[in-house]
Design goal:
The structure holds two protein chains of two kinds. Chain A is an alpha/beta fold. In chain A, 32% of the residues lie in helices and 28% in strands. Chain A has six helices and ten strands. The longest helix of chain A has 18 residues. The two termini of chain A are 20 Å apart. The relative contact order of chain A is 0.21. By secondary structure, chain B is of the alpha+beta class. Chain B has two domains: 165 residues, no CATH class; 125 residues, no CATH class. Chain B is 51% helix and 19% strand. Chain B is built from eleven helices and 13 strands. A six-stranded mixed barrel of chain B has the order 3-4-10-6-8-7. A two-stranded antiparallel ribbon of chain B has the order 2-11. In chain B, α1 crosses α9 and α2 packs across α9. Classes of the chains: A alpha/beta, B alpha+beta. At the A-B interface, α1, α2 and α3 of A face α1 and α8 of B.
């Protein structure tokens, strides 16, 4: 079942001679329980695709639907709420709050979203699955790049979102780490029934994907 | 509050430096306020202790009791709510003691002011050469029974008692009889006092040569009183503004450094209200922490300060000053709030 769809989405920035069309008639559907990979070089429109899919940017044209309802019909506050409850983000630079321990990163979610988060045992199981159960007392500065990324994934999954959007999750990782992350994202999609959408220029993730799309010059095509 | 507390805990050095600045500012403000209050009280303590509502002086005395003389005919008949006051500036001299500038207040023992003077030792004057002195004399080594000479009067005056809280024009008061005041002023027959004070708010001098002033008006006209208070108020006001700027600048820098973090939280759906509250909570926490330490330092100073230093540590006044500093912190914390609200979550997507 498609939990996130983009239909005929265009995105234009600027006007007149400064007008740039970044996305051209993009249509896409993310299914629950599948890992979709959007692959393309830098500047191809992947990040714009992600910001539109995450409800951070309203497209110039087209319809984006999450959980059966179009973004356009939702207020900014409702879209914000959607990002809190339904969409999890994993960002390229991890962006964990530097003054919160790993445990506190989850407590912050509890303070903002009081219900519907993973239970304590479920969180413990997730941390164990990600191999970071013994890092809960540590600050981000005390973690390696790979550990930070796994914490960022756990942080994104903690509110139990239906959709996980990942922005270049392997940008700073070496070969073996890319394999681990690819496997992990596929597992999360399959075992936790999440719609995982990854935008990346890293071709090494392709073997783990259920569906691969190519983004070139703002045009999306299934590979 | 959660985010603010966690950040303070993690960034101990940075928070400590900001708190240290606020400690110094709050301590300075507390000490200046106490000094201002202490000096103000030393101007008016005696007057306040009499519980009077107004002061009647000679209309030509420029609202200065030292320059005022009035006759019995001018004063008219006094009720139980009125009393004569004779004021003279004196220098108290005694063997083995440094000369002490003081204010001599001559009183009529039968009138209410003389009755309101509370003694900490000894008894009230029973003749013209007996006086009750402020405890500043006791602290200077005088004892009940000691003799002092006042101005050029050849006959010594015996200290028969001490009273506290007796200061006027930042000088200790020596209470005596009106007859002694007449002697010290070298008066010809005629004047009976410098002023008539009354605890009846409706009292008004009938004689056109006299003028009745409300106590507040009279106090504000005390020599140097208003200028001194205004100086302190300006200093405290400037310090408040400085504290506002320091807090605002520090918070602005801290907030600017955290904008990428805030952008991430906005991506994750954290409402901007949570981030604004965190910013304000951080500024209040920093200031409250600084105020607590500043207060402790002030308490230590109050305990260690010699009694001779004119400082008054008035808890309600200092609490008011502390509350104002918290308000300044909130205002300072509001300055970077616009940047927090306007933070663009898209800025953290795409590396």
């Amino acid at each position: 079942m498609a939990v996130l769809t983009l239909e005929h989405v265009d995105q234009v920035f600027g006007q007149g001679s400064a007008r740039v069309q970044v996305l051209h008639d993009v249509s896409f559907a993310a299914e629950a329980g599948s890992l979709s990979l959007i692959v393309g070089p830098s500047g191809s429109g992947k990040s714009t695709f992600l910001t539109i899919a995450g409800g951070l940017l309203t497209p110039t044209a087209g319809v984006v639907t999450v959980a059966g309802e179009a973004y356009q019909s939702r207020s900014a506050k409702a879209r914000e709420q959607l990002r809190l409850t339904t969409i999890g983000f994993v960002l390229q630079a991890y962006h964990l709050l530097p003054y919160l321990t790993v445990a506190d990163q989850f407590k912050l979610v509890d303070r903002i979203k009081k219900t519907g988060n993973l239970s304590r045992p479920a969180l413990a199981a997730l941390l164990a699955q990600l191999g970071i159960a013994d890092l809960v007392g540590k600050y981000p500065a005390e973690l390696s790049g790979g550990q930070k990324q796994r914490v960022a994934i756990a942080r994104a999954l903690y509110p139990d979102p239906a959709i996980l959007l990942a922005d270049e999750p392997t940008a700073a990782l070496d070969g073996p780490r890319v394999q681990v992350v690819g496997q992990l994202l596929a597992e999360l999609a399959h075992t936790r029934n999440k719609a995982v959408v990854v935008v990346t220029h890293d071709q090494r993730l392709i073997p783990f994907a259920d569906a691969v799309f190519d983004m070139t010059d703002g045009r999306l095509a299934r590979v | 509050m959660f985010l603010a507390l966690k950040e303070l805990r993690k960034e101990k050095l940075r928070s400590g430096l900001i708190i240290a600045m606020i400690v110094l500012i709050s301590y300075l403000i507390f000490i200046l306020t106490s000094l201002a209050l202490g000096l103000a009280r030393q101007n008016t303590a005696a007057l306040s202790s009499w519980g009077v509502d107004n002061v009647t002086l000679n209309a030509n005395a420029n609202v200065d009791m030292r320059q005022s003389l009035l006759t019995k005919a001018q004063a008219g008949t006094l009720s139980a709510d009125e009393a004569y006051i004779g004021q003279a500036s004196v220098v108290a001299k005694a063997k083995g003691h440094a000369n002490e500038s003081a204010v001599f207040i001559g009183l009529d023992a039968t009138q209410f002011v003389a009755k309101t003077v509370k003694l900490t030792a000894g008894h009230k004057p029973q003749n013209a050469h007996q006086v009750v002195a402020d405890t500043a004399f006791e602290q200077a080594g005088y004892k009940v029974g000691d003799q002092v000479k006042l101005n050029a009067d050849k006959k010594a005056y015996t200290i028969v008692g001490f009273t506290d809280n007796a200061k006027m024009n930042i000088a200790p008061v020596i209470y005596g009889q009106l007859a002694a005041w007449r002697t010290l002023k070298n008066l010809m027959p005629g004047p009976v006092a410098s002023a008539v004070v009354s605890k009846n708010a409706a009292y008004k001098a009938k004689d056109s040569a006299l003028q009745t002033y409300q106590l507040k008006t009279f106090i504000n006209k005390l020599p140097g009183y208003s200028a001194q208070n205004m100086t302190f108020e300006l200093m405290i006001g400037f310090l408040m503004v400085i504290s506002l700027i320091v807090i605002a600048v520090f918070l602005y820098i801290l907030t600017m450094q955290k904008l990428p973090n805030y952008a991430v939280m906005r991506v994750q759906g954290v409402p901007s209200g949570v981030l604004v509250r965190a910013t304000l909570a951080q500024s209040v926490l920093l200031v409250v922490a600084g105020l607590v330490i500043g207060t402790l330092l002030t308490v230590v100073t109050a305990v260690a300060m010699p009694a001779a230093v004119p400082m008054a540590f008035d808890v309600p006044v200092l609490a008011g000053v502390a509350a104002l500093l918290v308000v300044m912190a909130l205002i300072g914390g509001l300055i970077p709030v616009r940047s927090v609200i306007k933070v663009d979550p898209i800025s953290v997507i795409g590396g």
